[in-house]
């Protein structure tokens, strides 16, 4: 056992807000487990979100730039295929394609697809869904300023834990789930997320799924171990966030960032490794956690895919792949699938 619950104090001051309560519950569960783990949503406080945006522009972090290049090269074909897929199940009917996006974040790549939709049909509706209110505000502001013909209807919601509620639409819907965000979930959770989305879609509607592909181990590990230490700072920031929210005192110098390719599971694993034996007391939890030297906290997975594993994930959630676009080196894939 690595957890010691100390004698309850007579008075434990209540935490200030619901977010801190959620942090407390997550940290208690994760650090009491063997092996230790923490949920990835803890990364995204204001500083974490800022560091994440920086990760996406790093030279070693090829996924964002590669996916953007695929959109830039094939946006018109993607929009056309989505519309034609819907028309097959609705012979003779017309209707404007609308685009929804799960986990839109600041939506920096989506503009390329919205542009293509506007070129094709003069205007389009865009419904971004994200947990982060600040990221969505930023996304909407930049989109409406730059893109005439785009009507934005944002929704702040957690698509992992909450039921989705997407309004009815007379025409095709294409749902975007890009950035290989699906890879941050276990295969079963991934299938559940896609199934929940599937229930909101109509026959002939489509899902556009962005996935990072299995490739050379060195290339994969470098993407999560950048030279400037931005990913390291992002990972360690999780401890700083816990220190702030739970009044603990993790010494960040006593942990290091580790990112390793796990070939059996086809995933990059991120961990925080304790550089020495230590015990950390978390006053807000009234608990202490012991770390052996070299023990790790598992903080994130990033699954990598093959065309075969993408197809089987999609089929397990009742989608049928329609078409796939990729870069010359097959580093990243963008797959259109339909609800048939
Ligand atoms: N989904 C992307 C990926 O797994 C982006 C991402 C999510 C990420 N969490 C991360 C990148 C943590 C680096 C570190 O690559």
TrEMBL record:
Instruction: Give me any GO biological process, just one.
Output: methylation
Q: Per its record, what are the GO molecular function terms?
A: methyltransferase activity
Q: Which residues form the Histidine-specific methyltransferase SAM-dependent domain?
A: 24-338
Which residue ranges traverse the bilayer? Answer: none
Ligase keyword on record = no
Q: Where is the signal peptide?
A: none
Name of the protein in question: Dimethylhistidine N-methyltransferase
Q: Which species is the source of this protein?
A: Terriglobus roseus
């Amino acid at each position: 056992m690595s957890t010691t619950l100390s004698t309850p104090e007579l008075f434990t001051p209540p935490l200030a807000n619901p977010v801190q309560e959620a942090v407390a519950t997550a940290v208690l569960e994760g650090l009491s487990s063997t092996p230790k783990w923490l949920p990835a949503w803890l990364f995204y406080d204001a500083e974490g979100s800022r560091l994440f945006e920086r990760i996406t522009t790093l030279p070693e972090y090829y996924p964002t730039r590669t996916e953007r290049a695929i959109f830039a090269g094939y946006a018109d074909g993607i929009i056309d295929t989505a519309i034609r897929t819907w028309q097959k199940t609705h012979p003779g009917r017309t209707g404007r394609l609308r685009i929804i996006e799960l986990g839109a974040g600041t939506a920096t790549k989506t503009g390329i697809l919205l542009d293509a939709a506007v070129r094709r049909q003069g205007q389009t509706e865009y419904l971004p869904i994200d947990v982060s209110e600040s990221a969505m505000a930023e996304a909407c502001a930049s989109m409406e300023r730059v893109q005439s013909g785009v009507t934005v209807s944002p929704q702040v919601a957690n698509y992992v834990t909450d039921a989705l509620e997407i309004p009815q639409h007379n025409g095709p819907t294409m749902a975007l789930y890009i950035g290989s965000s699906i890879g941050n979930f276990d295969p079963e959770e991934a299938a559940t997320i896609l199934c929940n989305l599937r229930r909101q879609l109509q026959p002939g509607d489509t899902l556009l799924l962005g996935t990072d592909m299995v490739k050379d181990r060195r290339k994969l590990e470098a993407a999560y171990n950048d030279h400037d230490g931005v990913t390291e700072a992002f990972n360690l920031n999780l401890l700083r966030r816990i220190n702030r929210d739970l009044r603990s005192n993790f010494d960040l110098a006593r942990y290091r960032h580790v990112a390793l390719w796990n070939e059996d599971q086809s995933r990059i694993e991120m961990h925080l490794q304790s550089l020495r034996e230590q015990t950390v007391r978390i006053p807000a939890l009234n608990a202490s956690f012991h770390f052996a030297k070299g023990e790790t906290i598992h903080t994130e997975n990033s699954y990598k895919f093959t065309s075969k594993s993408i197809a089987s994930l999609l089929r397990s959630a009742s989608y049928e792949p329609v078409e796939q676009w990729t870069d010359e080196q097959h580093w990243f894939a963008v797959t259109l699938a339909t609800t048939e």
